[in-house]
Amino acid sequence: MVLCDEEGNEAGFEFIDLIEYNERKFVVLLPENDEDGEVVILEIEYTNDKEEGYVGIDSEETLMAVFEIFREKNKERFNFVD
Questions:
Q1: What integer pLDDT is reported at residue 61 of this predicted model?
Q2: What is the distance between the alpha carbons of residues 18 and 43, in angstroms, rounded to a whole number?
Q3: Which residues make Cβ contacts (< 8 Å) with residue 12, sequence separation at least 6?
Q4: Residues of the chain under the 70 pLDDT cut
């Protein structure tokens, strides 16, 4: 999938997972050509027209909670490093 930032720059991502937390939905993405293996987690937001958009997560607590759910759910699929 290709996403655009606020300045219109495009970046490619591989969709890894969809996580639900506190009645909200989050996508876990892996940037293309990323050798670090770090994922990007974005919250799904819907416009009044029911269009799907993605926004960054401001709360460190929410970000860590979503990552822990992702980590537990995918512990057999990925080799996580602490």
A1: 97
A2: 10
A3: 1, 2, 31, 32, 33
A4: none
Residue labelled with tokens 């269009």: 51
Reduce the DSSP state of residue 10 to 3 states and report it: strand
The whole-number pLDDT of residue 13 equals 94
Q: What does the block give as tokens for 79?
A: 């080799």
Token pair in block for residue 47? 């416009």
Closest CA to 57 of 15, 22, 82, 14: 22
String of DSSP letters for 17-63: EEEEETTEEEEEEEETT-SS---EEEEEEE-TT--EEEE----HHHH
The reported pTM is 0.85
